[in-house]
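Let's practice the habit of predicting before peeking. Look at the sequence and jot down your guess about where helices and strands might fall. Then scroll down.
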Amino acid sequence: MHLGTYRRIGYRMVLALLLISLTGCWNRRELNEISTVLAMGIDRADGQYEVSVQVVDPIQMSQKSNTQRSATIVYSEKAPTLFEALRKSTTSAPRRMYLSHMTFLLFDETVAREGIKQTLDFLLRDHEVRPDFNMAVAREYSAKQMLSLVTPMEVLPAMDLMKSLRVSAKAWAPTSAVNVVSMMQMLTKDGLEPILTGLTIAGDAKKGITSKNVAQPATFANFKYQGIGVFRDDRLLGWLNESDSKSYAYITNHVTSTVANVTCMDSDDKFVVEVLGAKTKMQPSIRSGKPYMTMKIDVRANVGEMHCMMDLSKPKDMYKLQTEAAKRLNQVIMSGIRHVQQRYGVDIYGFGEAFHRKYPKDWHRWKADWNQRFEDMPVEIQIHYQLGKFGKIISPFDNSPETRKE
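Done guessing? Here is the structure:
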């Protein structure tokens, strides 16, 4: 045979092998056989788990749809375990639930206080679930009620929940976007306890689950992220207020942008700073055989609003503002730390993890009773505050003789 003949035979064999490998998936599912789950809510009801899933209505997502039906459907079933409740949903849903596109998981407070490890065990064990969904705890309302809310900005409510959490975490420090991977890390690391942001309903919840909620500019009800939940291991202990939640964000390096008001030096008026970024560095040390934590925080900010009678073109006045802003931030952070130490006694900041890295031998002795040591641990804060731009105007309008009232 000629060399060209051997080459043709070789090409045909390679082609045959490729055709065999492209025969398709053995466990494929057709789109008309599955319901795509976007969000899941887990409640405790009658001693069982009540699992609610928000699924996409494929008819409404079609561009040719002219009906007034909701773009999503919420199915809910009760059972002793999550897996049973999810499979039981097929008794009322015509399609099997498909979890690969789930973006949001919501617990009610009862489940969160009893412990969330059992629920996470099922979701992480299922091969269909992607470990990138965000998590939160429903406050004052059930998870089922939260998933039934008709939201104004997004056609799919689950996308509204997910996007709002991520945006608020970046632009408003008192919220924290936690996905399932971050939660598993917090549950398994030594010297770090978990947290989750709370979610509630503002307004008339009964009207909020109807289509009328988005039929006018002012909605009857809307969801609202509120506070950070403190956990011991996998059990919810309580909630941080807005100020303490912001303190947590600064300590754990989760502040990318936020705003804060500060009282003027010589009056009760306020000026507002827009924080552009903050970086915190923990420096653990041992003093008299006990743990001691020093935190160095660098903050960059601009003047966003000004009501103090000052001339911002003068360096000494800008320095005064920086000093007051740093003093106020110190108060916020220290107040948050003391609150967590005295009320909850659990290390949500990762101080223990920092000691574990720097003093592994001492940590071996402290590990068993670290939360008790955390309660009494002194914390020192050193803040370097840098105020930059102050906008197109230098002084407030009422600082000039022409506009100042007699």
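How did you do? The chain is about 35% helix and 30% strand.
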